[in-house]
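Exercise 7b. Backbone tokens:
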């Protein structure tokens, strides 16, 4: 038996329950979790902003130790430390053929499967975003596990599975920040903190962190922010004032709200780039007029999973960790048990803290 945080229905509170997991079948791996990050996407899944089959075990950012493997699994074996990859690429769809594995059309097919059963009634449970990391153990497709790189502590490695790949990728792959450029990061949560560190690693000359909470300034500056702006109606004007009235070269939006996306766009210079990482609801409508699109010459782009290829990028991130350039522990503001996930959701809604990490 395994303890897990179960979402019984969209909009319902999480329930801590005992579940049963099958032995891994062909091309499957069973993993004992060491840690799982509580991401805003989990909150979006629970409230219906993003739709997944329910009931489900949520959690998509995790790392642990391989317990058992099924037939045809050769890249990991029992005892190996692994990072969970919630968006495994199929290798055969159009996006994958273009090398854009983060847009794989089949990446989330596994979320429709039943991967476990709730006890004692035997209700089938789906793995939220494929990996069901809010559990002591999980069974996943072999494509959902990657070996933990040398030199990365297993518990900290959980953060690589979403927050760091997303924040780092937004800066390096989507916005392609160059040395000397100026950057604004909107939202100082787990992804935002990773983006701030990534901007510092990229050699940005000025890094402005923006958040609704004044209490996050210390976190932001420790991650690399040179300036901190408390979000208001004057945010774009404040950022332009910090950059010689030009605006930043790059804005990275990690919130997913229409008003924040619009402000991020407004805070970039003429010809600047705005990368949207945050996941908003269908009701969040962003509007631009045709003349300003022409006049400002800015680029607005979406960013899925940091436009990252985990197999390619994890070794790069590990090298940054080993060399002291990337501090995974600095993203974590609280370490909790499974029972603490609902409170972590409340903190996210209230704009408190960075990343909450479930430690098993």
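Sequence design result:
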């Amino acid at each position: 038996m395994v303890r897990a945080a179960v979402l019984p229905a969209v909009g319902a509170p999480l329930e801590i329950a005992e579940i049963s997991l099958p032995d891994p079948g062909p091309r499957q791996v069973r993993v004992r979790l060491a840690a799982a990050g509580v991401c805003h996407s989990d909150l979006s899944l629970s409230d219906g902003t993003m739709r997944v089959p329910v009931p489900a075990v949520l959690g998509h950012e995790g790392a642990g130790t391989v317990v058992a493997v099924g037939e045809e699994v050769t890249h990991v074996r029992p005892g190996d430390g692994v990072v969970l990859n919630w968006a495994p690429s199929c290798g055969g769809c159009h996006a994958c053929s273009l090398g854009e594995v983060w847009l794989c059309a089949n990446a989330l097919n596994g979320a429709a499967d039943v991967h476990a059963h709730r006890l004692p009634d035997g209700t089938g449970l789906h793995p939220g975003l494929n990996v069901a990391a809010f559990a002591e153990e999980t069974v996943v497709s072999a494509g959902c596990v990657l070996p933990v790189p040398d030199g990365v502590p297993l518990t900290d490695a959980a953060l690589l599975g979403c927050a760091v790949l997303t924040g780092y990728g937004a800066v390096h792959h989507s916005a392609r920040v160059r040395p000397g450029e100026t950057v604004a990061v909107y939202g100082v949560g787990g992804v935002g903190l990773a983006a701030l560190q990534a901007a510092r690693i990229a050699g940005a000359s000025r890094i402005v962190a923006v958040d609704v909470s004044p209490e996050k300034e210390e976190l932001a500056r420790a991650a690399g922010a040179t300036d901190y702006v408390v979000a208001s109606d004057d945010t774009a004007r404040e950022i332009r004032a910090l950059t010689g009235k030009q605006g930043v070269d790059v804005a990275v939006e990690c919130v997913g709200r229409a008003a924040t996306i619009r402000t991020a766009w407004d805070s970039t210079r003429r010809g600047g780039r705005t990368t949207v990482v945050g996941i908003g609801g269908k009701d969040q409508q962003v509007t631009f007029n045709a003349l300003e699109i022409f006049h400002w010459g800015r680029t607005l782009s979406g960013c899925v999973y940091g436009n990252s290829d985990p197999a390619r990028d994890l070794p790069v991130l590990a090298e940054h960790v080993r060399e002291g350039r990337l501090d995974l522990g600095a993203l974590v503001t609280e370490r909790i048990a499974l029972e603490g996930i609902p409170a972590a959701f409340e903190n996210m809604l209230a704009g408190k803290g960075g990343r909450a990490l479930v430690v098993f």
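Instructor comment: The chain is about 25% helix and 25% strand. Residues 96 and 104 are 6 Å apart (CA to CA).
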